[in-house]
Design a protein that fits this description.
Blueprint lengths: L3 H21 L7 H7 L18 H29 L1 H50 L1 H11 L5 H8 L6 H8 L1 H19 L1 H6 L2 H20 L1 H33 L5 H5 L1 H19 L2 H18 L10 H4 L3 H7 L4 H16 L2 H15 L4 H26 L1 H27 L6 H20 L2 H6 L8 H30 L6 H17 L8 H10 L1
C-alpha cells in the first residue's frame, strides 16, 4: 500500500501528464485544472470521482501559480485576437485590401498602356523609316531608267532624229550618259559639304524633270531641223545623267545614315533594287509606248520624287562631313587604304563579271540558240532579275555579305561556263537541246548576280569607310563604276570578234575565279559591325 508522500508524487505526475498537451498548444482548455483534480482517484480505480487527493501545500502553491500564468496568457491572446479580428479592424482590413487592389489595377493598366504606347511608337518609327527609304529611291530608279530607256526604241529614235543605228553620232548619244553621271558623282560630295545631305538629295528631282521635258521637244525640233533635235536629245541625256550620277552617291549615303545596325544590309540593298526596277520599267515602256512618251516618264518620276520628299527623315549634320578634305583623307590615310582597294576591286568585279555582255547580247544568244521569240527571253530574264534582287533584301541580312558574295561568284562562274558550252555545242551542230541550256544558263547567271555581285559591292562600300571620307569614297566608287562600264561596252565587241561569240565570256570566268580567291582571303564580314571593328579587321589581314 502506497504511503501518502508516494501518492502525492503520483498525483502530481498524472496532473503534469494531463496538462502537457494543453500547455504545448498555447494554454489549457477551460476547466482543465479542475477536471484533472476531479478525475484523479486511487491507484487501481482511476477516474472515480468524489475523493480529494492529499497534496502538500508547496505543490498546491506551485500549481496555483502555473494556473494564474496560463489564465493571463489566454486573456492576452484573446485580447490580441479581438484587436486583429474584431468587427472594426476587419472592415479596415477589407477597405485597405480594396485600396490595394485598385492601386494594382491602376498600375497594371498604366503599364499596359505604356507598353502599347511603346509598341505603337516603335511601329510608327519603323513605318516612317521605310517610308523615308522609299522616298529616297527615285534617284536610284532614274539611274536604271536612264541606262535602259533608249535600248528598246533604238530604231524609232534613229528614224526620228535621221540617224543610222550604227553611226558614230548615235553611239555618242548613247555613251554621253556616262561622263555626265561622272560629273554629277564628283560634285555630290561638294553639295553635301555645302548644303547638307538631305537638301542635296531633295534637289535631284529638278534634273530628271528637265530631262523628261527635253526629249519630246527634241522630236518636235527634229521634224523642223535635225541638228536642233540632236542637240536637245543630247541635252536631255546630259541633264538626266548628271542627276543620276549624283543620286548614285547621295542615295546610298542617305540610306546608310538612317539605317539601324541590324537593318543596314537590307536597307542599303534597296538602292540596287530601285536600279533594277528602273531597268525593267524602261524596257517595258520602250516596248509599249512611243519613244517620246517612254522617255518623258523621267519627268513624271521626278515630280513623284518631289511629292515624296516630305517623307524623308531629317539626318543630323555631322562635323566630319562638313570639315572638308575627304579626298585627301581617302588617299593618304593608311587606315582606309585597304578598304579602298577592296571597294575598287569589288566594283571592277561587278562590271567585268560579264553582266553587261549578257544584257547587251542576250537577244543575240537566244537567236543563235534558236529561241522562237528572243525578245520574250530577254524580258523574262529581266523579270527574274527583278524578283531575285527583291529576294536579296532579306537574304543579305540572313546570310551575311561575305558568304553571299562568294556563293554568288561560284554560281555566276558556273552559269557562264554552261553558257559557253551551250554556245560551242550550237556551233558544233548540237542545236536540239541548246535552247534550254542557254536559257537556263542566262537565268542562272542573272540570279547569281542579282543576289551577290549586284548589290553587295555598293553595300560594302557604304560600311567600310568612316564618316570623314564616306561621301568621297562613294563618289570615287561611282565614278569608277561608270569608267568600268564604259570599258566593257567598248571592249566586249572586240572580244567577240577576236575570240568568237562562244568564247567571249571566258575572260569573265577568269575574273570571277581571281575575284573569289581575293575576296575569300581579304574581305571580312561586315554584317552588324561598327566601322572601327571592320577597319581593325582589314588591317589584320
Amino acid at each position: 500500500m502506497l504511503q501518502p508522500c508516494q501518492m502525492a508524487s503520483l498525483d502530481i505526475g498524472i496532473i503534469g501528464h494531463q496538462l502537457q498537451p494543453s500547455i504545448s498548444n498555447g494554454g489549457p482548455a477551460p476547466g482543465a485544472w479542475s477536471t484533472a483534480f476531479r478525475t484523479t482517484g486511487r491507484p487501481g480505480r482511476p477516474g472515480r470521482p468524489g475523493r480529494k487527493q492529499e497534496v502538500s501545500k508547496e505543490v498546491s502553491k506551485e500549481v496555483s501559480k502555473v494556473q494564474a500564468k496560463q489564465v493571463r496568457s489566454m486573456k492576452q491572446m484573446n485580447q490580441a485576437r479581438q484587436r486583429v479580428f474584431g468587427p472594426a479592424s476587419l472592415s479596415g482590413l477589407l477597405a485597405f485590401g480594396c485600396v490595394c487592389k485598385a492601386r494594382c489595377q491602376r498600375i497594371n493598366s498604366t503599364a499596359r498602356a505604356a507598353v502599347a504606347k511603346d509598341k505603337e511608337s516603335i511601329n510608327q518609327g519603323q513605318w516612317r523609316l521605310w517610308m523615308a527609304c522609299v522616298a529616297a529611291l527615285p534617284g536610284s530608279f532614274q539611274y536604271g531608267f536612264g541606262l535602259s530607256a533608249i535600248n528598246v526604241p533604238q530604231m524609232s529614235i534613229c528614224n526620228s532624229l535621221h540617224l543610222a543605228p550604227t553611226s558614230l553620232t548615235w553611239s555618242a548619244l548613247v555613251a554621253i550618259l556616262s561622263p555626265a553621271g561622272l560629273v554629277g558623282a564628283w560634285l555630290a560630295p561638294l553639295a553635301v559639304s555645302r548644303f547638307g545631305l538631305l537638301t542635296s538629295l531633295r534637289s535631284t528631282w529638278i534634273f530628271f524633270v528637265i530631262s523628261g521635258v527635253l526629249f519630246p521637244m527634241a522630236r518636235f525640233a527634229a521634224s523642223k531641223a535635225s541638228l536642233c533635235g540632236l542637240l536637245l536629245f543630247a541635252a536631255g541625256r546630259v541633264v538626266g545623267g548628271f542627276g543620276a550620277g549624283a543620286a548614285t552617291v547621295l542615295v546610298p549615303l542617305y540610306l546608310g545614315r538612317i539605317a539601324p545596325l541590324k537593318l543596314r544590309g537590307a536597307i542599303g540593298n534597296l538602292h540596287q533594287v530601285a536600279i533594277v526596277l528602273g531597268l525593267l520599267v524602261a524596257q517595258f515602256a520602250g516596248a509599249l509606248l512611243s519613244w517620246p512618251r517612254a522617255l518623258q516618264m523621267a519627268a513624271a518620276f521626278g515630280i513623284l520624287q518631289l511629292l515624296m520628299s516630305p517623307l524623308l527623315r531629317e539626318v543630323p549634320q555631322i562635323q566630319e562631313e562638313t570639315a572638308g578634305g575627304g579626298f585627301r583623307v581617302l588617299l593618304t590615310d593608311p587606315q582606309v587604304r585597304r578598304p579602298l582597294s577592296m571597294a575598287i576591286i569589288l566594283m571592277a568585279l561587278q562590271q567585268y563579271c560579264g553582266i553587261n555582255g549578257v544584257w547587251y547580247y542576250s537577244t543575240e544568244f537566244f537567236t543563235q540558240a534558236g529561241l522562237p521569240n528572243p525578245l520574250a527571253g530577254s524580258l523574262l530574264s529581266s523579270v527574274i532579275f527583278m524578283f531575285a534582287t527583291l529576294a536579296s533584301v532579306p537574304l543579305i541580312e540572313k546570310a551575311g555579305r561575305r558568304r553571299l558574295l562568294l556563293r554568288g561568284q561560284i554560281g555566276a562562274a558556273t552559269s557562264l561556263a554552261l553558257l559557253t558550252a551551250s554556245l560551242l555545242a550550237n556551233v558544233a551542230g548540237f542545236g536540239a537541246w541548246t535552247v534550254q541550256i542557254t536559257l537556263a544558263a542566262v537565268i542562272g547567271f542573272v540570279v547569281s548576280f542579282a543576289i551577290s555581285l549586284g548589290p553587295i559591292p555598293w553595300q560594302i562600300a557604304n560600311e567600310i569607310f568612316p564618316l570623314r571620307c564616306r561621301a568621297e569614297a562613294q563618289c570615287l566608287i561611282a565614278s569608277l563604276c561608270e569608267i568600268f562600264s564604259a570599258s566593257v561596252a567598248l571592249g566586249f565587241p572586240v572580244l567577240q570578234q577576236s575570240l568568237g561569240a562562244p568564247l567571249a565570256f571566258t575572260p569573265s570566268i577568269a575574273v570571277l575565279a581571281a575575284g573569289f580567291a581575293y575576296v575569300s582571303r581579304k574581305l571580312p564580314e561586315t554584317k552588324n559591325r561598327e566601322v572601327e571593328d571592320i577597319l581593325a579587321d582589314f588591317n589584320q589581314r
